User: Which sequence fits this backbone?
């Protein structure tokens, strides 16, 4: 086990090393420090204590990391009034440890395999309160891998590398790590014994080619692999800790959870992370950036960022705190503020979808719906049925792709189609009205459009033009939507279905009464 790794208890040498760095008296901040030292020094310098020399605050770093509350109490007890960071309502700026992730393998750079390790590690580290600043993917090249490791050690506190630990000639991570550290490779007896024992458990003869997996750079230690032959490698550096893990996802996850996580958790201390997302639709990412600009400032805790996917904008909030409750409180504060600013553009939180939002509204109001689709070919109905229990509100779905079916099933006049075309405001409205009548539903939703990639008649009817119809007992609302000619056929259909769901959602939120 690695629980007794020196990296856990080497905080004091790191602080002492930081003391040797030049200090800027004007800004009361250290100059030219790497992320490890900055994490420690900024944390302790953020305790603004009048009359106390910076050197004293430096030397308090070890006790601060062990028990920050006790450190503050000690100062307050002497009549000082420290402040944590820069106040931002209920939030403050807080430095975090930083991580650098390297994925290694020609199969990744050529696109043969998808790199899922980086995403999993990033999420795991983020939940610990460690900020992942960069992910890089490197092919099987010793110098490129070594260069990436050196860069990671210069920029971050923790370097995580996966892949390239197998027994074949193209597994070069061991050699690259040795080059980055300027240390020779040595056969590790403990690692070799573990590899032999693994073959014995599998009841297979030991393959001499696997002996290379026991090579470890001098000064580093093997990390036990309980699910494979390739041991991981841990290198304790004063500036950064380097963990090299297998590329096989099952082996990597097991090794991280059993051996790496306890080590990192001890060094992080009590810092914890919480995160959640607000999901929105119908408002651009640029507009959201303007509306939430002050919340998205760099260096703020919580951090707020956006990600767009198929028209849905996710606003992710990640906060660090001295405890899980503290971090969660910060996240909830920002989530509430974001929801207030974006209003009914928000349809849910992490794990929700437009269809689940619509399902909840239909159920709560006791309303039924039917659908009539042309260009989407049933994808709208399919998404409505993805939610369990949808039979309580979805009565029927019509796929009326041909013009004749619009007339036969929905009662759309053939003369209307002839006069305005199947893709028109008039036909979309008639489809919705006829669908509601035919199904006996409270509401009906229709879609007709040009999904492409060919067809259309610019400028009046370009590829990506869609008309959406929503009918209730009193009126029919039709919306014209331009999805864009850049979308392929599948994307256009999915965007059209999403736009229809959002039209229904907004109607239910703003005006739909419950059925009596």
Assistant:
């Amino acid at each position: 086990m690695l629980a007794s790794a020196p990296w856990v208890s080497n905080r004091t040498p790191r602080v002492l090393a930081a003391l040797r760095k030049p200090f800027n008296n004007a800004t009361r901040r250290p100059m030219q420090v790497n992320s490890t030292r900055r994490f420690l020094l900024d944390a302790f310098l953020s305790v603004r204590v009048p009359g106390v020399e910076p050197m004293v605050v430096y030397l308090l770093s070890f006790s601060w990391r062990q028990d920050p509350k006790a450190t503050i109490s000690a100062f307050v007890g002497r009549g000082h009034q420290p402040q944590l960071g820069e106040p931002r309502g209920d939030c403050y700026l807080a430095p975090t440890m930083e991580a650098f992730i390297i994925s290694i393998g020609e199969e990744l750079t050529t696109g043969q395999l998808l790199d899922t390790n980086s995403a999993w590690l990033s999420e795991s580290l983020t939940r610990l309160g460690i900020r992942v600043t960069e992910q890089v993917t490197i092919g099987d090249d010793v110098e490129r891998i070594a260069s990436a490791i050196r860069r990671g050690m210069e920029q971050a506190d923790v370097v995580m590398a996966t892949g390239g630990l197998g027994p074949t000639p193209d597994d070069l991570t061991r050699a690259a790590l040795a080059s980055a550290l300027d240390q020779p490779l040595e056969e590790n007896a403990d690692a070799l014994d573990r590899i032999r024992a693994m073959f014995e458990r599998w009841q297979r003869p030991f393959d001499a080619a696997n002996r290379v997996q026991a090579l470890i750079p001098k000064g580093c230690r093997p990390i036990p692999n309980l699910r494979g032959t390739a041991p991981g490698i841990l290198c304790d550096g004063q500036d950064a800790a380097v963990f090299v893990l297998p590329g096989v996802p099952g082996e990597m996850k097991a090794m991280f959870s059993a051996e790496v996580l306890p080590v990192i958790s001890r060094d992080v201390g009590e810092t914890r992370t919480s995160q959640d997302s607000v999901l929105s639709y119908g408002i651009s990412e640029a507009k959201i950036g303007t509306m939430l600009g002050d919340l998205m400032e760099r260096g703020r805790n919580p951090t707020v960022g956006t990600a767009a996917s198929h028209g849905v904008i996710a606003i992710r909030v990640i906060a660090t705190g001295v405890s899980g409750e503290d971090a969660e409180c910060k996240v909830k504060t920002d989530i509430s503020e974001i929801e207030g600013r974006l209003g009914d553009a928000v349809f849910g939180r992490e794990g929700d979808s437009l269809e689940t939002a619509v399902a909840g509204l239909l159920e709560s109001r006791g309303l039924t719906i039917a659908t009539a689709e042309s260009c989407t070919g049933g994808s709208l109905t399919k998404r409505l049925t993805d939610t369990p229990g949808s039979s309580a509100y979805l009565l029927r779905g019509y796929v009326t792709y041909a013009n004749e079916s619009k007339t036969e099933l929905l009662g759309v006049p053939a003369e209307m189609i002839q006069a305005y075309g199947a893709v028109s405001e008039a036909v979309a409205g008639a489809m919705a009205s006829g669908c509601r009548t035919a199904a006996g539903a409270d509401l009906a939703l229709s879609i007709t459009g040009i999904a492409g990639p060919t067809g259309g008649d610019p400028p009046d009817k370009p590829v990506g033009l869609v008309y959406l119809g929503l009918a209730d007992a009193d009126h029919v609302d039709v919306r014209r939507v331009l999805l864009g000619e850049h979308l392929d056929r599948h994307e256009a259909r999915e965007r059209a279905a999403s736009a229809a769901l959002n039209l229904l959602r907004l109607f239910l939120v703003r005006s739909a009464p419950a059925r009596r």
Remarks:
- Residues 489-510 form the longest helix (22 residues).
- Confidence is low (pLDDT under 50) at residues 3-95.
- The CA atoms of residues 366 and 515 lie 6 Å apart.
- The radius of gyration is 30 Å.
